Each structure stands twice: as structure tokens, then as C-alpha cells.
Amino acid sequence: MQPFRVFARWRSLSADESGHEEIQREITQNNSTLSSISIAAPFQSNSLSNRDQSWSSQPSMTGIFEINDNNETVFNAVVASVLPRVLQGKSSNFFAYGHSGSGKTHTIIGYDYENTENLGLCLASARHLMQELARVNAENTGDQLGIGIRLYELRKNSAFDLLNDHCECFVREGPDGQVYIRGKTEMLKDGKVRVRPIVTKACWNFEDLSRELQRGLKLRATGTSTVHDQSSRTHAVIELEIMTKELLEARDAIVERQSELVPVGKYATDVYLEEQIRAVVLDEKGKYVPNPDYRVDQGRIDAAEARKADFEARVRSAEEHESSLFQSISRRHACLGGKLVFVDLAGSEYYDAKNGSRPNQTAQEKQEGRQINTDLLALKEVIRARAQKLARVPFRSSPLTMVLRQHFQASSDTDSAMILTISPSARDSAATMNTLKYGSLVGVAGDKK
Ligand SMILES: Nc1ncnc2c1ncn2[C@@H]1O[C@H](COP(=O)(O)OP(=O)(O)OP(=O)(O)O)[C@@H](O)[C@H]1O
After folding, report:
1. How many A from CA of 204 to the centre of ligand 1?
2. pLDDT in tens, 253-284
3. Which residues are annotated as a binding site for ATP?
4. CB-based pocket (< 6 A), ligand 1
5. Domain spans of the chain, in order of start
6. What is the pTM (predicted TM-score) of this model?
7. Is residue 255 within a helix (H) or strand (E), and if so which, with residue range?
8. Domain spanning 5-243+335-446, CATH class
9. Which residues does the annotation say bind ATP (predicted)?
10. In terms of C-beta density within 10 A (0-12 exposed, 13-18 middle, 19 or more buried), how is residue 306 classed?
């Protein structure tokens, strides 16, 4: 079986492309279950050099969807088979990769929320999971299972929380090696401090979840100025996790305890530094020497450290409570913690290592373009390293792979997939070919041992 499944999806010509010449394409089913795509660009296309006028991918595609295939067909082929595993508490990741306007959002979320056959992969999955959870909930009177949704867009080192007013959060690796996405430290009205992570909204039925998602996506649009182009300049991440109210509360309690620890930890550091500074003076040669008139108040340092240790213990106790609660609920419901992660990647037009940045870009756009290239290259390398079972997987290479690390580590690659969204318009030949080249490299990664 292919270590990481790659699919390609041709979208139909849009209204303003009607009359455009289409890319000539051919699919070859190889001896394995994998297919390859050959494309021959029309000769009047001036977007390709002669060298690039025809090209064949390696056998790397698990499936290829044609323009008449709707979202339901894609869902059935790509995601439906992993849902039973998610209902066993496992995780899977799905990526949409393609240039701006090629159909990533159409595939991941969909634009028609009313017709089930048009729901994107994320909403269709949520609908199926909610149906299953409703059946389980009806049979038991104790735990009520639902889906926690997180929705954020990633740009450089920041994540913008679309379920929390587009609040900016930062991607950081903690001393424990885990990656955290946290907002700025906020001072609340009651004087308490809070360090917000990305918000998880608990939903108990499909309609609520769909509404939350739509509300968040509107923020994505209004949080930017030139909507279409901007949406391609961020990676949108949607996480769906099966959970209960108690579990969510236990996780909120951890955040609360961690927030309480922040000022206490800072005070302990300040006290230590203050004491060390008072304990030295500058001599006539400008060197720091011990201050004969001051003795470090070790008692003050110890008291601050003891208080910090106390608050650290409170965090650990909240974490232990969450962990034991998780274990006890999952003994009753194996689906707890089952997770699906969908990533609508930034436009692949930025991934053009050979030709560099696009014309007419501002300095900021160029810098963002470079970051997106780094992210997309890093993602390919992570998938390749995992498929080849290398000892070192380069998760730290970019903020995107840092954020996705926990999801990759929790999931099996054979249950994850990338969908390459491609336009059949000859005008987009170069972009389409770049997308196919990238996907082909991802798809054959496991064979290059
Ligand atoms: N397979 C498809 N069938 C029908 N229409 C499609 C398909 N794919 C995309 N479209 C339409 O094409 C347009 C652009 O698609 P979409 O917004 O999904 O592109 P995108 O890749 O997400 O763009 P961006 O990266 O700029 O956000 C939309 O109007 C969408 O409805």
C-alpha cells in the first residue's frame, strides 16, 4: 500500500474560462494500484517552455477525479474508509494542495452547505461522525459525545484563531519539546492573567458545527483585504476531535492553571535576577565584583521558587486529571480523541523554487512567498521522511510542520492523504504542472529508499 495517498482532482472550467482551451491529459493505470497523469500543453500556451510542453508524472496517484466528480464522490474515495478508525480514537490528516482558484476550499469545505453531495470533505466527515455519535449518545445516558472544532490560519510564525475573533497566537516549542500555539498574555477584568490557546468550540450536532465553521470562515475573509489572493497566502487548518463536555472542561482547567503559573513564574525569575544584580557592583576598572554591602536574600528567592513549584504542581495535577479522565471515558467509548485534521494549504503558485517570486509582488508578499515555499517544501520532506521511516523527521523546518507534528505523530500515513486540486484551463498549465510535480514527489516518496 502507498505510504501516503495522493489524489488529483480536476475542477471544471469556470464561467470566465469558458472557451479556453483545455489541457490535454491522459491517465495510465500502472501495474500497481497507482496511476500516472500525462499532460500535453496546447502549443499556443506561452506559459510553458518547449521543454515543458508534455510531461508525465511517476505512478504516484491513488485516484484521479475528473471534472464531473462531485464532493461526495471525493469524500467516498478519500475519507470514508478512515472514519471507522477515527471512531476507534485514531487520527488522520488531509491536505489540499493547488494554486489559487484551483478548488482547495471547494474540496475541503465546499461552498454549498445545503446539499449533502456538495459538502466538502471536512463537513461531510463531521456529518457522518455526528450521525454515529448521536446513535451512541442515544444508547447511553452518561457521557454525551460531540465534536470539538478548532479553526485557524497560519501565516509565518503566527496562527490566527478564526473561532476567536481572528486573535493572533504564536507557534512556540516548549521546554518539553511539545509545540504550543498560544495568544498574548491577557489581563482579565478581575486582575487574573490568561494565556489563551487556540479555542476549541464544542458542538453537539452537525448544524451547530457547520454554523461555527461558516462563521469562522467569514472571519478569514474579512480579516484580510484582497480576499481571494490573501486566502491563498495562509494555510487554513481545521481540527475535528471527538470529545465530551467533561474532557473539554478538564482541558480548560489546564489552561487556567497554566495561566496562573505565568505571573508566579515571572515573579520568581524577577526576584532571582534582582537579588543577583544587588549582589554585585562595578569596581573602578568597570568589572562586576561582589557587593560587600549586600548579601543575597536566599530566603526571598526560595519563597518565590516554592510558590512557583506549588503552581507547577497545580498544572501537573490538572494534566493528570485530564489524562485519567480521558482514559476512563475512552474505556467506555473507544472513539474519544478520534481526530481528523484538514489543511487547506496556501496557494502552490508560491512554490516555484526554480522561477523565484512572481512579478509585481510587494516586499511583504515576497517575504510571505518565501515562507510559504519553506512550509510547502518542509511538508514534502516530512511526508517523505516518514514514508521512508527515517530516524529523523524534519518537523522543525517550518512553523507549518511544527504545528502539524503532533497530528503526524498521532496518525498513520496510510490513512492520510493529499488532494492535488488542478485547473484544466490551458492558461493555468504551468501552475497545474507544478502542482502535479509536487504531488508526484509526495506520492512516490515511500518508494525512494
Ligand atoms: N471541482 C469543482 N467543481 C466545480 N466548481 C469548482 C470545483 N473546484 C473549484 N470550483 C469553483 O472554483 C472557484 C475557486 O475554487 P476555490 O475557492 O475552492 O479555490 P481555492 O483553491 O481554494 O482558491 P484560494 O487558494 O484562492 O482560496 C470556486 O467558485 C469554486 O466553487
Report:
1. 29
2. 998 998 899 889 999 999 999 999 999 999 99
3. 98-105
4. 11-12, 14, 98, 100-106, 111, 228, 231-232, 347, 421
5. 5-243+335-446, 254-325
6. 0.89
7. helix 245-278
8. alpha beta
9. 98-105
10. exposed
